[in-house]
Design a protein that fits this description.
It is a single chain. By secondary structure, the chain is of the alpha+beta class. The chain has one domain. It has helices spanning 2-26, 229-253, and strands spanning 31-35, 39-41, 46-48, 53-60, 72-79, 90-93, 96-99, 105-107, 131-138, 144-146, 163-172, 181-191, 205-210, 216-218. The strands form two sheets. Strands 2, 3, 5, 8, 9, 12, 13 and 14 form an eight-stranded mixed beta sheet that branches. Strands 1, 4, 6, 7, 10 and 11 form a six-stranded antiparallel beta sheet that branches. The longest helix is centred in the first third of the chain and has 25 residues, at 2-26. The radius of gyration is 25 Å and the shape is globular. The protein starts with a helix and ends with a helix. 29% of the residues are buried.
């Protein structure tokens, strides 16, 4: 009887734990990012594009602190981290070209006119910052989608229904330097009235709400270019010489 009793307690506890986990996994954040046709990388907990050109969606599920009349920001950051200015190609958003790194800001979002140093009200570094990034301000319009969790449905774009607002960013990273990608973060900001709490300075710009790092997004890594015909021919010649040398050594040793 004792064994059965404790088994039932264990079963109830397990059921409650699974229910709690499922509820957490399926909860819809106030802010989140999604990519049509994307895939979810569980190692980094990020929605990743499967093409260098893709549709990125910023989603808002309004609440008292985050309304459709607020200003929101999309950060587009170079990854892996870059700490010195360099010519790393370019990418576009909605037809606007961003040269990496000359059209970008170094540090951690949000951009703050008062101070460029990191403070507790800035976005957490989450393995991305500090690096060069481009910050874009926008507002959510009237476009709505049925509410869903981008972590659960990484391939989806806006769905039939209403309640969740979205803004489209057309992204193209084709011309980005080999080995780099663009990481996207979504957030809302406020101006601090004083230097208390997270506010390091009076009128410091701080993050108020951001898409959880489990609901951010990233472009696919740049693909290495196909060698030019001349380069490819030289490579084959080189491999042939290596093979000839190897055979020659075997003949001599024999």
């Amino acid at each position: 009887m004792k064994h059965t009793y404790f088994s039932r307690i264990g079963l109830v506890a397990l059921t409650m734990w699974l229910g709690l986990f499922a509820g957490t996994a399926n909860a819809i954040p106030t802010l989140q990012l999604g990519i049509t046709g994307g895939t979810y990388d569980w190692s980094t907990q990020t929605v990743v594009s499967t093409s260098p050109s893709f549709s990125l969606y910023a989603y808002l599920l309004p609440d008292a602190g985050n309304t459709t009349t607020d200003k929101y920001y999309l950060s587009m950051a170079l990854t892996p981290q870059v700490s010195t200015s360099a010519n790393l190609g370019s990418f576009t958003y909605n037809g606007n070209t961003v040269n990496a790194t000359t059209d970008m800001t170094y540090g951690t979002p949000p951009i703050d006119a008062f101070s460029s140093s990191y403070d507790p009200g800035d976005l957490a570094k989450h393995g991305v910052f500090p690096t060069y990034f481009k910050e874009v301000e926008f507002s959510f319009g009237s476009n709505q989608s049925g509410a869903f969790n981008t972590q659960d449905h990484p391939t989806w774009g806006p769905q039939a229904g209403s309640g969740m607002y979205y803004n489209l960013f057309s992204i193209d990273t084709t011309n980005l330097a080999d080995g780099y990608a663009i990481h996207f973060d979504l957030y809302n900001t406020k101006l601090c009235p004083n230097s208390s709490g997270q506010c390091a300075y009076t009128t410091d710009t701080d993050i108020t709400q951001f898409a959880p790092f489990s609901h951010d997004a990233q472009s696919m890594g740049s693909v290495s270019p196909v060698p030019e015909p001349q380069t490819y021919a030289m490579l084959l010649v080189g491999l042939g010489l290596i093979g000839f040398t190897t055979r020659r050594r075997k003949d001599i040793s024999a």
